Amino acid sequence: MLNLFEIMQNAQGGNAYQNLANQFGIGPDQARKAVEAVLPAFSMGLQQQTRTMEGWQSVLATLGQAQNSAQFFDSNGDGIPDHLKNEGQNALGAMFGTPETTQAVARQAAQFAGLPAQMMQQMLPVIASMVMGGLFKGAMNGGLGSFLGQPAPTPQQQAGTMLETFFGSFFGGRAPQPQPDPQDPVAAGLDMLKGMFQTGQEVHTAQMEALSQIFQQVTRR
């Protein structure tokens, strides 16, 4: 099972850092630092979102629309198509909830990466598209393919039905429901997917404290 750091290492045939460097006119080491600066925020945002049924719905609905991001994950990385910018922004919304949080994350990550905040703001949807592409491929391989990428019902309906079935009793569903069978492939797939939300490398204490403050502000709203 891959984590976010390994997803980015594997993205675009292992050339994601070089491709990001080429796209934004920076060095590969700077691109790597930029990715390492935002992955803890992605991890924290995804884990926080999936504490509730509504958050899971948002994440799974975004994954259900991430086929193009999966293709970008596998591509040679020669720029980002216009339609993927929207997918990247949708992914950021699923992780962070509001544009204000995304901007705060960009500013914080820019400080740790030593890059201008405006450049980090532009890099975020590109990196988010790669991450979502990797998570989509992981979800497909983990047995969730039947719930992702289908034309009908809508991704929101897919997510809601699945979560009501497997997590209704935990997140205040309309009626108490039995706990999911641990051997059930979909329940196992969700557990696997959540495991992929881990950053996968040690994060500087100061960075985690700064991110915690950002997400605490969101929680208090």
List the topology elements:
Layout: H1 4-14, H2 16-24, H3 28-49, H4 53-64, H5 67-74, H6 82-96, H7 99-113, H8 117-144, H9 155-167, H10 185-195, H11 205-220
Helix pairs in contact: 1-8, 2-3, 3-6, 3-7, 3-8, 3-11, 4-6, 4-9, 5-8, 6-8, 7-8, 7-11, 8-10
Task: Describe this structure as you would to a colleague.
The protein is 72% helix and 0% strand. The protein is an all-alpha fold and 221 residues long. It starts with a helix and ends with a helix. The model is unreliable at 149-160 and 169-178 (pLDDT under 50).
* Gyration radius over CA: 17 Å
Portion of residues in beta strands equals: under 5%
* Contiguous helical run count: 11
Query: Would you report the number of β strands?
Result: 0
Biggest sheet details: none
Whole-number average pLDDT? 79
In short:
The protein is built from eleven helices and no strands.
Features:
221 residues; mainly alpha; 11 helices; 72% helix; globular
